[in-house]
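HUMAN: Would you supply a protein with fold tokens?

ASSISTANT:
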Amino acid sequence: MKRLVLDTNSLIQSLPVKSKYHDLWISLFDGRNTFCVTNEILEEYEEILQRKINPVLASRVISAILSNEFTSLVTPYFHFKLIQADEDDNKFVDCAICGSAKFIVTEDHHFDILRQISFPKVNVCSLDDIMNHL
């Protein structure tokens, strides 16, 4: 079982049943992986899902995440500020570090800077790559 952090776009792409990434979403609920989130990440998920899809689905997704036995609610007590290009992305980095996540799953190139930072080490994985690790 791997501990994973999904950025918001990766979450959205994994939700549709017909998505080639849907098995990622399923893996967070069937015990193959642990879903690491923070309150700040959940707030962003809800806000973006409400805006891009609809409030009902947003509420259901958040409820599913919170009631999932394989969700780890992480509370970062330190902010590492490793991403300068889009500081809002740091919430995912802090969650990954404090939650001992194996990967941040993202297609966002702002996270590429993490490959150059040796400490604290944060592994970044694309959606296609994580599908090979499920």
Remarks:
- The chain has six helices and five strands.
- The chain has a mean pLDDT of 95.
- The helical segments are 8-14, 22-27, 39-52, 55-67, 90-98, 127-133.
- Residues 46 and 60 are 10 Å apart (CA to CA).
